Amino acid sequence: MSVVFLCPGQGQVPRDLGDLVRASGDDLAAAFEARLGPEAFDDPLADYARQQAALVAIGVGRARRALEVLAEPEHAATFGEVVGVAGHSLGEITALFVAGALDGPGAVRLAAERGQAVQDARVPEWEEAGMLALSGPTVHDHIEALLAEHGVELANDNAGDQLVAVGRSEALAALGSQARELGLRAVRLETTGPSHSSYMLPVVAPLADAVHVAGLTEPRIPFWSGLTARRAVDPPTEIGRLIAERVRWRETLLDLVGVLHPTHFLDIGPGGAMARLARKTVPEVAAHTLDELDP
Amino acid sequence: MAELTREAVEARIERALAAFDVDTSQLAPDAEMEALDIDSLDIVELSQILHDDFEIDIKPQDFGGATTYGDALDVVFRRAGI
Which of A31, A167, B42, B55 could be joined to A108 by an S-S link, Cβ 3.0–4.6 Å? Predict the structure, then answer.
């Protein structure tokens, strides 16, 4: 028996974000306040640094709870040892905590630096960009032609039937119409910026620097990279580059299973999107959510 | 804008879910969202439809605590003030 932890990225940002950060853990809330100021609790969506730090604080708090729950005898026998961890996009910072490469407050500070690097790189052109989720059983068959025709990029390969494109809003609207004609679903996502695309190239170096400065220690639990879909060999460089490249989540799950052969996945949440994606890609591994184990 | 009543909103939600390939014969207040196979993209699109058709100010994150279909309907009705 063994389990791999899955850490979500930005997903759907809860409305009560500030309260959730306060409840995430005293040390995490203190790190959040020390870096961003007490006013950040009241308006955590005001900028990227606050938002990303808040989400990682919540993620780390949930990861700690997940580790406690799995240590309980009824679950310890079922799940066994934590043998690996991966995070989707921003979730990689939470995953570094799970891996033991960064402590909780360090993860919150690094998320704030990531958000700040994105904030500093922001240009008016981003206002005209967005992200579009494409889904359907044939989405992978059509994607290359759609991307080429509309001049947009692939931001996330989430599953065999789910991808996310990023680009100019006008181009995404045209792509969405064409995708629907092909029998695909196309849903515009509310996002904080055109992540995982060439729009983010100016963020790569500052983010890699921030990861270096954070002073990662050698992961105790193997950490998989969404950039390479392999076990990370150079986390600062890989995390830096991922912000401007596609998240290879589907391939990450396949590689994790191929290498580690876990019997279970645990999506630490909030929500259960990572567990759902895992069930689609590797249905032979039982995927659970923390909320299901700890209602 | 479509008439803002519980019946009209629920009917629109059912139509949307049918279009998302959800088995609407299984819709019941105590049916688990997970068992109905309603995923986060469905919720994003549903929120957009409810905003477009009824001008309901609702975001996908409002459904965060909804584990059953009945919970989700309550969220929508509360946001719509109906």
Answer: A31
